[in-house]
Automatic annotation (TrEMBL):
Full protein name: YciK family oxidoreductase
Alphabetical keyword list: Oxidoreductase
Origin superkingdom: Bacteria
The keyword Zinc is annotated on this UniProt entry: no
Alphabetized InterPro entries for the sequence: NAD(P)-bd_dom_sf, SDR_fam
PANTHER family: ALCOHOL DEHYDROGENASE
Family note: Belongs to the short-chain dehydrogenases/reductases (SDR) family.
Amino acid sequence: MQLHTEDGQLAQQIILITGAAQGIGASVAKACANAGATVILLDKQVPQLESVYDEIVEQTGITPAIYPLDLKGATVDDYKQLAKTISDNFGRLDALVHCAATLGQLAPVINQDAKTWAETLHINLTAAYLLTQACLPLLKQQNSQLIFTTDIHKHTAYWGAYGISKAAIEAFAAQLQDELEAEGKVSVSTIDPGEVRTSLFARAYPARNPEGLKSPDEIVDLYLSKLMTEAEHAS
């Protein structure tokens, strides 16, 4: 599928995308590359990352970067090393797009498994915080973007730690926006892509027919419009 991008609109941009091995993250990465960006693909699934890498090279001729990282087990030092690697290799970071997420357990609160609850919050919320914190010095060097992916199921029964993590991500984004507004360097936003044909959605709704859902490629303009607007302001 040819994504709706215009060649060169994100040229010279360095964009880090989490959850880039599949689903929305992979589609956003490919769309950004099609628009001229150099993308850094972050995920724990190396074979899938390599597949996205190969597709980007074949379609655009631009060489992306792969950064394998398991958000569940990554430490503060791991995130600091990631930021240092980006700085050493690219000298800048123009956008960080958070697409990585885990569904965890869908169940009543009384039946939630405590370990799964904690892991879900860590991957969806704490990891996003730690990565953002590590990358902020790079992002603040020029006009840049911080984009978080959220979900309508923030207050829905049975959505457990996933729903709580998305509510917290929106609060975290609002807090960052308030802190960074005066400086005017980092633009912070959230995107709710709606019901999308992804593996996470299939796990949440195993009985739903996916035929009527939009594919990840069909919702990437939600992300591109924000990225391109900021790139135009920066140029």
